[in-house]
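We read letters as residues; the fold follows as tokens. Both lines appear below.
***
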Amino acid sequence: MSTMIALFLVFAALVGCVGETGVNVENAPPPAALTFRVETEVYEETVRDGDGAELAVCAYELPELTVLLEDGTPLETAATEEQARALAAAGTFNARFAQWKSNPTTLAESAKEDRAFRNESGLEAVAYSDDLSCAVYQTENLISVSGVYSTYTGGAHPNHILMSWNFDLGSGAFFDPDLLEEDGGLKEAVTAELLRQAEAAALENGQAPEEFFWTDYAEILADWTSYAVSFDGSGMTVGFSPYELACYAAGPQVFHVPYEELSPHLGQHGRELLGLETGDTGEAAG
């Protein structure tokens, strides 16, 4: 039980919430002379026990944000207020993902405790594994990261968790999808579309929605902003990990809502974040 508690605390510390509140939407984006570049780096670490046995094998694909000057060179020291704001935004973004680099040590502590228990019980010891893969979408004002976190701690199968992070480059903060809404109706409109797609998916599998999903699937879908929400060039994706909306065997449940469905319910700042021109209901400008 102590091992499971430790693992839960590790995951709770690392989960990227869909957003953070308190964003000042009037903050201007960085000046044109500055640009942001996002690249992913793979951080790998294997932690071994005193006898050389593997305790934890970890590999994380981590986005990293760099501020570039007009000539394309990285900005390292701020000479203006605008540059300082841009570096602060990059620091906030990178700090969120740098947390993952401390996970192997914590995971290995749990694995070591589990190994000792298994050795005493005559069971075969197993190495824990931890993996994060990420995809990044960026507009002039937005960075949206979708991730799949997979971890194995000796159970019947690995656990797979869908994750997301959405970042406002203008304000330098992570945000919740509610920020996109101005006059109301966005959450209800998306909920209706998710219900439509979910019920169609259940019927395609030859089952009623209450049989294919959990019986309270409608309430779960209505709380979609609490799950993995990310954006790309054509719309918004809402993802539910195994066990969240249906049983493990059903796999993750992923729904895509095109911008033409979102557009009537977006506020001006939301449209700017997503790279949509006023009146545009098509793809976001990449």
Notes: Residues 10 and 102 are 10 Å apart (CA to CA). The first strand starts at residue 35 and ends at 48. Residues 103-121 form the longest helix (19 residues). Confidence is low (pLDDT under 50) at residues 1-26.
